[in-house]
Structures are given as structure tokens and as C-alpha cells.
């Protein structure tokens, strides 16, 4: 089996700075997540762990194989532990906005019942979030990462990027861009719920990868990152509507069974159902509007040559070294 060669000092120092930045971002949110007085703590920590996980594989050759695998495994566990809590926080927040905006009094009981159930579920999983923070602290993952990175962080800053660093950046960004654009074939049918969701995931991965290397390029790829962020956010909002659309009919059925079990009849649903049906229709209408907006935006990005321009930006530094071989970056599967 071919042994993976170690990265050069410049690349490892660059990677160590990136990983250290995200390590600090994770550490900064632990107390806030435990105290739970603001839902943004969980959001920021979840994003920080994802960015940490995006960076580690790119620079794993700078560390031992076991170290990189351990860092990924434990940071992934934190991301997953926060996932359901964050999703519920977002649902409750959006539902609060909908309740505040609704003008028909008859719609409020059903929407408030939905909020009650979501709040109950959120409270039921809070101990799981606290336990995840306890495990993170006891594992000493973050101090161990800091100790491993320390030798790479003593290198004087301001040194010019090396060719291997440019090669790694170009290959990693291009791979992510290829996978992202492979999803385009499925976006023109609004029924492709899974495919649109997958494209959102690939946009997020492309964004995180580009953010890692953006400082290597003129203008730090700000316009390209803005477009990718818009793709991620629009498709994320569409996915949120799809989740509601799937969940609400099931919720109505569950509440009907609860009413029958508790009261012996389902007349209470006459009060609750109008608001729940209204909220379902609102999500379906919002989804349709968001989807049309996404198609318009996508056409605009195509006309502006955003994606070819990104390829040109990341490949430009390599033109100075036309005979050099590319650095190996971790391979990913195409969009499916």
C-alpha cells in the first residue's frame, strides 16, 4: 500500500492555525451550552464542530493517523448530540414567529399545542446535551488537540504560501465544487426533496472548505462565498418546509390518538385542527415561493459565471508551477 507522504511545514502550520481557530470556537461555547440561556450557544458550537471536522481531514497527514481519527470521532459525536436540540430550537423559534403573525384567532390553539409538544420534547433531550458536554470535557479532546498543534504554531506568521498548500487548496475546493455542481441535474423538479437536501449539504461542505483556504486568494473569495452561502440558506429553508410538511400530518394523527385516549372522544381536535392545517398550508406555500426564488437565483449565478470563476481563482496560483504534481486531498463520493 502506498504510504501517504507528510505535508510540508508551511501547509501544516497553515492547517494548525485553522484547526486551532475552530478548536477555540468550540471551547468558547461549552459553558453557554450548559447554562442554556440562549439557543445561539448550541448553534455556534454545532457550526464550530462542523468546521473543525471539515479541517481535520485536509491536514491529517500532519498528525498521526490515530490522532486525526480520534479527533474526528469525538467532534462528530458532539455535533450529533447537539443536532436534535438545535433543530427543535429552530422549529420553536419559527413557530413563535408564525403564532405572533397569525391574525385568525381560531388558528392559535392548534399552533400553541404544537409549540407545547415541541417544547416538551426539547426539555426531554436537554440532559443528553449536558451529558455530551460532560463527556467532551472529560475526554480532554480540546486540550489534547491544542497540545498536538502547539509545535506547528511557533512558526513565524506571514510566510508566503507554499506550492503544496496551493495544490491542496485547489484540489480540495475543486473536488467539493464538482460534487456540488453534480447535484444541479436534480434541482429543476420541485419533487426532488432528497436531492435538494443533498445539494444543501454539499453547498455547506463547499463553503466550509473554501472558507479554510480563502485567505490564500485575492479578495478572499468573498463574492463566491456569498453565493454559496445563499444556496445553503435557500435550500436550508426549503428543507425546513419539507420537514414541517412531512411532520404535521403525523402530528395531527398523534394528537387525535392522544385526545381519544384522554377524553374518550376526538372533539378537542375541532379546536386544534384549524391552526395545524393553516400552519401546514403556510409551509407548503412558503416552500413553493422559496423554490421559485432559488431557481431565479441559480440562473443568476450561472449567468454571472460564479462557478467557472471560482475554478479559475483556485487554479491561478498553480499556473506558475505547471510541471509540479498535485498534492493528494481526501477523496469524496459524488452527489447522489
TrEMBL record:
Gene3D superfamilies to which the protein is assigned, alphabetical: CHAD domain (1.40.20.10)
Domain CHAD span(s) in chain numbering: 4-288
InterPro entries reported in the protein's UniProt record: CHAD_dom, CHAD_dom_sf
One family name in Pfam for this protein: CHAD
Protein name: CHAD domain-containing protein
Organism: Ornatilinea apprima
